């Protein structure tokens, strides 16, 4: 499995590197990257989920087992962070960054890697994974921000943010089209498919553009703790739950892959908006993005030895 893993990850690394090089060389205006990330998050990635779920053959996909494994491992990691995270931070805002760094993941990297490893039928598995983890992670993070951050979001604001999350909305629309057998009309189907396909390369370019070497290693102790939870505890707990539930090989690979991913750059935006330690969050994102080049293949190789 070493060959497929390397071949699946090389395009990801190259696209992230290209995005970083273009940002560093000012090939495009700085304002472009913010707008490109917004386009990817609010339009392109939801379109990928809508198309993947609406047109997928879900027969044989262990939906509820996959959901249980992902939510279970996320809650487990959150519990570890709640019990021990405060020992590596100096204040509440810094703790929120450690918490985000331990449980959030990068959607773009996950979907691209899953498709590279399994093929296009990994998209519905990835969509199910996002539908399970995105609401769970956002609820947990906002609760932590409400207690430890300097901004205090209301319950109404929390629920509204989850309900309007474009990734959640995209998954709900795709599932509704699948369950009702309405599907996507031929002309619209092609448009939605094209938008979804554009999400992966553009999203990875944005990941590279957001990579800031200046923040790498800042707050080393909390950064290493959050990364240990992210790259070791999360995938290990996920694999154990998957084996206990006797999920099939492809579902296990997607589940472990998603839980071994580095923290998304959107964590930095959330830290700024909800009163977290944005500087520490930027350092965690940069550190994990680099470490993931080794950590993700290692997790998949260890998993392959067990499968």
Textual characterization of the structure:
It is a multi-pass membrane protein. The chain crosses the membrane at residues 6-27, 39-57, 63-84, 105-123, 129-150, 162-182, 223-245, 251-271, 283-303. With 307 residues, this protein is mainly α. It has a single domain, classed as Na+/H+ antiporter like fold (Up-down Bundle), CATH 1.20.1530.20. It is 79% helix and 0% strand. The longest helix has 29 residues, at 278-306. The mean pLDDT is 85.
Q: Short summary of the structure?
A:
It is found in: Cell membrane. This protein is mostly helical and about 300 residues long. Helices cover about 80% and strands about 0% of the residues.
